[in-house]
Specification:
Strand content: 5-15%
CATH architecture: 2-Layer Sandwich
Largest sheet: 4 strands, antiparallel
Order of helices and strands: HHEEHEHHEHEE
Radius of gyration: 17 Å
Distance between the termini: 10 Å
Strand order of the largest sheet: 3-4-6-5
CATH class: Alpha Beta
């Protein structure tokens, strides 16, 4: 964050880590996860702007640069005859905690959950730069998205708008393949 001195930066990081550790403890995520995860920590941004509602009518937010890039990319896809829409965007740590807690309540083991959902503090959605994308005729968050015209268009064009596929097949981060999950990689916002 700009305008912060080293001491404030250090305090903010310590507060963030303490917040993440407390959430992990509540979920039963092993204490060594913070030091052993291959995923990078993902800090929430200081500024988010409203974007369009997602496919389910829920309000969504992104960083200003990610919002502009998404709007431009969506318009470009539409001009090419390809419809893409938001399934989700920014999620704070508490939302990620609730998402995982619901799965635990349904009897899933935390080790299995963390193969498909990043632990709180490690989700790219926390950055306000990650989006889950859908298209008509394909179930949301389904691997079959890779067989759509939308995925083909994204694979060929998303990079021009600063978006990359975060979790390709057999990725080194240990997260299951997610053809719908794309992240805006503006170096100024990383």
């Amino acid at each position: 964050m700009t305008g912060m001195n080293k001491s404030t930066d250090s305090n903010s990081r310590e507060e963030f880590l303490a917040r993440v550790q407390a959430v992990h403890q509540c979920l039963g995520i092993p204490a060594n996860f913070l030091s052993e995860s291959r995923l990078p920590l993902c800090v929430e941004p200081p500024l988010l702007v409203a974007t369009e509602d997602d496919f389910y009518g829920r309000p969504q937010r992104l960083t200003p640069a990610a919002h502009d890039a998404w709007a431009t990319m969506r318009a470009s896809a539409a001009a090419a005859g390809v419809e893409i829409h938001l399934i989700s965007a920014f999620r704070d740590i508490e939302y990620q905690q609730q998402l995982i807690a619901r799965k635990i309540d349904r009897g899933q083991k935390i080790e299995e959950i963390l193969k498909v959902n990043a632990a709180p503090g490690f989700s790219e959605h926390h950055t306000g730069r990650a989006i889950d994308i859908g298209t008509p005729g394909c179930d949301a968050l389904a691997e079959e998205f890779e067989n759509t015209e939308a995925f083909q268009w994204l694979s060929e064009n998303a990079g021009e708008f600063g978006f990359v596929l975060s979790y390709p097949r057999n990725n080194v981060l240990g997260i299951s393949y997610e053809p719908w999950h794309w992240c805006y990689k503006n170096p100024d916002e990383a």
